[in-house]
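Researcher: Please translate sequence to structure tokens.
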Amino acid sequence: MSLFQTSTKDLGQLKANEIVNELNLAITQRDVGSVESFLDLKKHKSVSVRRKLAELLAELGDQSKTDFLKNWQNLESDRPTWIKIETAIDRINRKNGQQKYDAKIFSVGEALGLVKGLLGSREYIIKGEISESNVSNQMYFFKIKDLDGVVMDCGCFAGIIYRAGFGLIEGIEVKVTGKFKISNKSSRLYFDVNKIELTGEGEYIRNLKLLEEKLQNEGLMDESRKRKPGILPRRILLIASPNSAAITDLLRFSITEEVGWKYFIYLLRLKEDQLRMKF
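Model: Translation complete:
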């Protein structure tokens, strides 16, 4: 039975991670009708449950839930949850076109937390060209830019690049999936990548690069293996039967291509068995 059909008593019998999973399910399925069954979770002892409830209300709540959120906010002791509630109120007001700006004083950390809640609430897919990259402590940091030269900072764990199966070569076009984040210390906005794929010309460049690396590893690109082109023949002898298509092809080639070759045709009028015996 889904949690949406259970009673409040049943909710209390579930573990915190199970409740969070159900809240995530409700958000994913946009199940607005389930919101009422979750409201009592504002008193839950697990902060992860309370934070997820605030996220659910931000996604599915309507204007009637703002009073509930404000009352809850006045009683909430966990500061990160308090900020998530503030984010939920803000999003509901913006959805209903009734945004009201109250003169509230935030610390720098709280203000950044509020912005993080707004930016990191959904996932985005962005396409661009890699302009530069570097590695530090199992983390890849790189930039992608568009045709107008607008640049965006990106970051991801090394494992994501390994799973992608290609290096961050400057100039290749990629598609990155992830969320916007703000670093805690520098307040720098960046895109936290959880998936990276090649697109369009990037796929061609990647295959060309892999072929180049393969040939280099096999030693086929060494200078010592390079040879001067051989001397081209100037005389060609064609041995064929009078009805052979090879004669027609040779004559057509000699007309369309000016290569300065001389052709000699020796016609054979023997049957196949006699020809085999002759040679």
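Researcher: Any highlights?
Model: Residues 95 and 258 are 74 Å apart (CA to CA).
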